[in-house]
Design goal:
Organism (chains A, B): Roseivirga pacifica
Radius of gyration of chain A: 24 Å
CATH superfamily of the largest domain in chain A: Response regulator
Protein name (chains A, B): Two component transcriptional regulator, LuxR family
Number of strands of chain A: 6
Order of helices and strands of chain A: EHEHEHEHEHEHHHHH
Helix content of chain A: 40-55%
InterPro entries (chains A, B): CheY-like_superfamily, NreC/VraR/RcsB-like_REC, Sig_transdc_resp-reg_C-effctor, Sig_transdc_resp-reg_receiver, Tscrpt_reg_LuxR_C, WalR-like
Largest sheet of chain A: 6 strands, parallel
Strand order of the largest sheet of chain A: 2-1-3-4-5-6
GO molecular function (chains A, B): DNA binding
Distance between the termini of chain A: 48 Å
Oligomer: homodimer
Keywords (chains A, B): DNA-binding, Phosphoprotein
Structural class of chain A: alpha/beta
Number of helices of chain A: 10
CATH class of the largest domain in chain A: Alpha Beta
Shape of chain A: elongated
Strand content of chain A: 5-15%
Amino acid sequence: MSEIKVFLVDDHKMIRDAIDSYLEDDGRFTVVGQANHGQEALNMIKAGADFDVLLTDIVMPSMDGIELVKQLKEEGLSVKIVALTMLSETQHIKKMLNYGVNGYVLKSASQEEIVKAILEVYEGRNYYSPEVTNTIMDHLRGGKQTKSAVSLDIPLTKREKEVLHLIIKEFSNGEIAEKLFISVRTVEAHKRNLLEKTGHKNMAGLAIWALEKRLFDDI
Amino acid sequence: MSEIKVFLVDDHKMIRDAIDSYLEDDGRFTVVGQANHGQEALNMIKAGADFDVLLTDIVMPSMDGIELVKQLKEEGLSVKIVALTMLSETQHIKKMLNYGVNGYVLKSASQEEIVKAILEVYEGRNYYSPEVTNTIMDHLRGGKQTKSAVSLDIPLTKREKEVLHLIIKEFSNGEIAEKLFISVRTVEAHKRNLLEKTGHKNMAGLAIWALEKRLFDDI
DNA sequence: TTGGCCAGTAGGTAATTAACCTATAACACT
DNA sequence: AGTGTTATAGGTTAATTACCTACTGGCCAA
């Protein structure tokens, strides 16, 4: 059984060295290459660097990890990637997932966790730090209330919710009026109040807000 | 150190018995109550059943797990809940998370995994089966292409994407025209083409589609 | 190289929807 | 009895959408 070839990308030499020595000591891994930043990594990989798993930081000077992953995918290289980061925000996680990252580990993770992530990804599975999973699940829960005071939730009336639901289901004002047995003018009034209450400027924004708030079970 | 009091809800006696005996054998748990379905569980809990963690099936006759959890939360009871289910669809997971479930375990999980979930939830953390995490992450990845042929992706032109992006950022046609140095009529044309191409009937539907397709990094 | 196709641009006209403001009945709450 | 909120809806004007048409500049294949 041969060792798993790992390629490290991080702008902090100290971190690279720490991971390097830990992985080499483990015995199951060998670090076949290191790069300071995305550009260097991309060059080395294009020049034919051979490895099994790429372990990369996200925030780096001269091409960040996101750009690196994007470029690698654009080059058509099917590479197994573990993102290593301090960022646990949904935006970054989503972005990396979209670009095809297979593992997402926080820098606060233990060395054991990094090893686990590399092993899982090497085997063709995915690995996410528990914190990452929690971030995502909280997000799914409806935008995580923990963001201090700001989340004054807007209380929509039953009728407003009905109207909003029908808007999102792509019915026209006329159709909504017909369905609810009210005048088109009333539908307009409800829409106006919805935009007013939620502070949005058009139906697109309102729809996305409703989606993120998870106001309706079916969307 | 006292045992963790578990309450089981599942319409299959066999499953309840299996979990019951496994938990009791473990030594760290004691099953203090069992119910056939949601209604029975709700009655027993309202009548004062005392437990630490509620382990409930989702699909059941006479009040399913989702409704049970919803009702419990509406009663203002702060209960630690692990959902036990065969369903691994994003919709169900989202729904349960929204209602405040703390753990989500698939029925295909091992007994060890159920134990782990109960322990984690008892300690105030969350637990999700790896399959559940994967389902969610795949969803976040952009709707999981694996749904066979159907996903004919609509190729939007660069200009159309720009316009769509600005719509979602809630700019009016006039503002979009100004930003892109084109006429309002052209913006209208692009919008028309966007609706036509994607098969939507209004901007709300289009916005949600764009969101689900994850066309833009910032939303 | 000439035709065909598509992206991007934009106008005309009618219908729909949004943006203002106003108004009234029904109900709850004090 | 008075006050507030919800749901209802009209009038007027502005903006957006719905159809239809049309021209330019690439690009690609016959």
